[in-house]
Amino acid sequence: MAQERATPIRLGSTAPDFTADTSNGPVTFHEYIGNSWTILFSHPDDFTPICTTELGAFAKLEPEFTARGVKLIGLSANGTESHKLWIKDIDEVTGSKLTFPIIADPERKIAYAYDMVDYQDTTNVDSKGLALTIRSVFIIDPNKKIRLIMSYPASTGRNTAEVLRVVDALQTTDKHGVTTPINWLPGDDVVIPPPVSTEDAQKKFGEIRQVKPYLRFTNLKKE
């Protein structure tokens, strides 16, 4: 019997809670998040080429995420023993030291709850006829709210630098009440949101560069 498609989750919705086995032992997701930012990212299968490169890259970049108060947790549609063996391959191939948990989701329960399943390619199924998990990324804030969703096809690897950049952007906008323009990186000018008057922005930030009445930039001083 086909599994029902989950109600779509959207930006700002609460991340569905779940309890699952992982490569590091049982996890209750909301407890794992705690008061941290968290990145949940899924993979189609263990011992596959693109997934191996991705997990190694995330593991090598984990200190940068930790410095920003961000936890990592992966997911793959296999059991924990498979995950543990795969981690040895990941570390060997990529030179990483992977320590964050990888969720076991062989029945795709979490994949369906988070709509991490490829419905465009109906041939993308395993031996049990279950749709394979796609490459999804969810950035979740300490209030358990989903702040970003990115989905990639199984054939395309992700960009860890972009995931880190978005974390920087979200944390900057939350802290300072600004927005970030195209290709923004820490240290670049930020944008004053339209509802904020120029007078109030000048009081808060100091120098303002106005390009149009609706497009005003400032630069956040280093703290």
From TrEMBL:
InterPro entries (alphabetical): AhpC/TSA, Peroxiredoxin_AhpC-typ, Peroxiredoxin_C, PRX_1cys, Thioredoxin-like_sf, Thioredoxin_domain
GO molecular function, a single term: peroxiredoxin activity
PANTHER family, per database record: MCG48959-RELATED (PTHR43503), PEROXIREDOXIN-6 (PTHR43503:SF4)
Domain Thioredoxin: 9-172
Entry annotation: catalytic residues: 51 (cysteine sulfenic acid (-soh) intermediate)
Keywords attached to this entry: Antioxidant, Oxidoreductase, Peroxidase, Redox-active center
Function: Thiol-specific peroxidase that catalyzes the reduction of hydrogen peroxide and organic hydroperoxides to water and alcohols, respectively.
SUPFAM superfamilies: Thioredoxin-like
Keyword Kinase tagged: no
Keyword Cytoplasm: no
CDD domains: PRX_1cys
Official protein name in the record: Thioredoxin-like protein
Gene Ontology cellular-component annotations: cytosol; mitochondrion
Family: Belongs to the peroxiredoxin family. Prx6 subfamily.
BP terms from Gene Ontology: cell redox homeostasis; cellular response to oxidative stress
